[in-house]
Amino acid sequence: MNQPDALISIIVPVYNAGIYIEETIAMVCAQTYKNWELILVDDCSLDDSRQRIEAVADRMQGQVRLIKKTVNEGAARARNTGIDHARGRYIAFLDADDIWMPDKLEKELKFMQREQAAFVFTAYEFGDENAKGTGKIVHVPRVLSYRQALSRTVIFTTTVLLDTEKTGKDLIRMPEVKSEDTATWWKILKSGIDAYGLDEVLAIYRRPAKSLSSNKLEAIRRIWNLYRREEKLSFPYSCYNLFCWAIRATLRRL
Q1: H or E stretch covering 134
Q2: Residue 169 phi, psi dihedral angles, 5° rounding
Q3: For residue 2, what pLDDT is reported?
Q4: Which one, of 245, 134, 113, 254, lies nearest residue 182 by Cα?
């Protein structure tokens, strides 16, 4: 399973994540799948994130790499910088405050290879500010197409694994828009690639009480702008997808 061409590049955008980052690195090191590189892209943090990463990276002999940006440009560009520096065939995204189960990479790569998929994602559980599971689980469909994805934001960035031999790197680069991750998944799916869902909880989504995603009006505004400005959907079709999205988003949080 750990053949050379199965190197997984794990990309983590870092901005003022000092309170989480050592736990994040330790969590990756604890993965049962060992053929990985961890690329931490510091987006000009104002805290001690860089120093904490450097202290660990010095001991990891290149398996943990710190990329220091000189200008703060946001999560999309930070992830794109990580993509540019990735040496692995496979790319996984991880946010510094989220949690992976220890066998996340192993199970997901086996699933990807079994399905001969280019794009896979998994179920996940909402966690509180301490990343303790709340019991609210987001289940995922086995296959998700572009049209299906428009009405459900079920793909959680921290669960995604991509095979760059099948997608290339240009297709997975993130645009500079709000909800850039959702826009990226739609771009990939629109190209004709389906996403395959592994309906097993392999990640926890940490949700602080005052997180951006908890602002419902802002979330609606972001998804509407994606429909109209990025996807160029008609007004009626945008309304239909927004209605379906809102119902599913509400049910997901109950």
Answers
A1: strand 133-138
A2: -90, -30
A3: 47
A4: 245
**Mode of pairing for the β-strands spanning 161-163 and 119-127:** antiparallel
pLDDT (tens digit, 9 = 90+) per residue, 111-166?
999 999 999 999 999 999 888 888 999 999 999 999 999 999 899 999 999 999 99
- What whole-number distance in Å separates Cα of residue 202 and Cα of residue 109? 12
Nearest Cα to 36, choosing from 58, 5, 7?
7
Structure confidence at residue 250 (pLDDT): 75
Give just the sign of the alpha carbon dihedral 106, 193, 93, 228: negative
Long-range (24+ apart) CB contacts under 8 A made by 134-141 are 136/252, 136/253, 136/254, 137/201, 138/252, 139/199, 140/197, 140/198, 140/199, 141/197, 141/199
Report the candidate in 197, 209, 118 with the shortest Cα–Cα distance to residue 159: 197
Instruction: Return left, alpha or beta for 133; rule: phi > 0 is left, psi -120 to 50 is alpha, else beta.
Output: beta
Tell me the residue length of the chain. Answer: 254
Identify the sign of the CA torsion 222, 225, 229, 233: positive
And the tokens for 82? Answer: 């990580």
Q: Lowest-confidence range among 34-38, 43-47, 57-61, 130-134?
A: 57-61
Angle between helices 216-225 and 235-253 (to 10 degrees): 140
Residues near 68 by Cβ (< 8 Å), separated by ≥ 6? 42, 50
Both tokens of residue 144? 């998700």
Q: 202-247, pLDDT tens digit by residue?
A: 999 998 765 544 577 888 999 999 999 999 999 999 999 999 998 8
